[in-house]
Amino acid sequence: MAKKTEHIKNIIGALPNDPGIYQFYNSTGKLIYVGKAKILKKRVSSYFNKDKYDSGKTATLVRLIRDIKYIVVETELDALLLENNLIKKHQPRYNVMLKDDKTYPWICIKNERFPRIFSTRKNIDDGSSYFGPYASVRMINALLDFINGTYKLRTCSYNLSEENIEKQKYKVCLEYHIGNCKGPCEGLQTESDYTDNINEIKQILKGNINSVIKDLSKRMDKYANEYNYEMAQFAKSKIDTLEKFKSKSVIVNSDISNVDVFSIVGNEFASYVNYLKVMNGSIVQGHTLEIKKKLNEPDNDILSLCIAELRTRYNSSSPEIILPFNLELEIPDVKFTIPKIGDKKHLLLLSKKNAMQYMNDRQLQMDRLDPTRKSDRVLTQIQKDLNLRDLPKHIECFDNSNIQGTTPVAAVSVFLDAKPAKKEYRHFNIKTVEGANDYASMEEIVFRRYRRLTEEKKTLPQLIIIDGGKGQLSAAVKSLDKLNLRGKIAIIGIAKKLEEIYYPNDPVPLYLDKKGETLKIIQQLRDEVHRFAITHHRKKRRKNTLQTELTKINGIGEVIAKKLLTEFRSVKKIKEASKEDLENVVGKSKGEIVYNFYQNPS
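The chain above was modelled as a monomer; its predicted structure follows.
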């Protein structure tokens, strides 16, 4: 707990009960944190009224605070926007960090007579219309290709003033001759016709494709009624092109219009917020932000910050926002929706899917650059999911194997840094247990394994996994008690049927995320130990078969028995083999001995 200095006490005492932002400074006067608050006094005081903090970084932050400044605003939304701007400008050490502050491209409709349309990364306040930004250059190029191919706009930079056109200052270029431009430079296309095209393009870029199609359909009928079939055909070709373009968009429900959709996923290191812009049931824009966490910030704080950032960036004024959960955020004239079913729920799930995909892609990229990072991330996740005291860098998993009580064996698989360490795998022959007794067998092998490691002063694992339910787990725990290792090594059991995780003396199982990395690692350990135990069991069974079935035949030793078993694969097939077949494998005399033993028993 950081003690409040007299200076800090005085500032907190004077704080208003209004919304605003607060700024924490360290002893050198450097800004280290910016936060927003619905009630400034209540929020800032909370940092200094705790005996314990959820995060060690938060405790460190509070210890460093030497001065507090604040700005009062009218609404919580104003506070959110101001907080976002200050974080981007100053990048304080303890604030979340937006990872994509690069400049994204826009589509510009130039403020000029016969406007040009092009992509740009500079949004200049010159009266031009800007649409975007777009997260994908491929998307913006596809849009421009569609616009240019459909509307045949000019690409030249001529000053097409009325005076210059009348004076015939310019001549049509190659673009006109190959059909990519209608020649406004020579007055071959009227300003009115060109402006109609620009207005249609603006509606398309806003996502209002249906209204453009509707307007074109009316014009097509009008041209047809006037027997202007050439213009009617031209309008129809535009409609067909727009319908084809619209079919490539993600259509949900045409009644859903002018809606923003936000979802959030993440881990303890970063959060990923996806944004979808929906117009007339079509997704017209999408983007995912990566936010690096600094103080284990909750999802609702991060999502609020990203809503402010993305709505500002995309200049959105949508009257409805679809969210996965409620936020303590109010935006004037905006409705918040948390859908449970229907098309809006489908949109929310689609947004979450995009966020998950982005997160997985980012993790894969970073794992390739730094392989140790993946193991650290996986181990940290296992530690968190299983509530372990220590990072499980060394994990061992035990399994028994017997068939109808015969030839009982067991094995242990070993993972180091979340990867199989096959040279460390071991198998065991059960020595003290008669018949099929899984519990007693488990107790024996766990005791033998860790007595030996202790005696040889080798490294003990941080986690033991028992392939089995509560019975096998209890048996393994008995061995740890005998060796005085209880509490020094974490131990769990996994039941195969429902993938339940059991802890000692806890009757209630834990159910892990079926798609999570923790369960995948546990399943991989179990599959490895099962495979290793079965392989050993088969070898031992075959060896026992050699010793009991074939080697009791007078004149047949292990070498001949093994040769027969290798050729015929089982004793049953050896019994059924003809005398000639047996002699072909082991010679005339030995073949006759085996044949007579099974066919002519005395």
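DSSP finds 20 helices and 20 strands in the chain.
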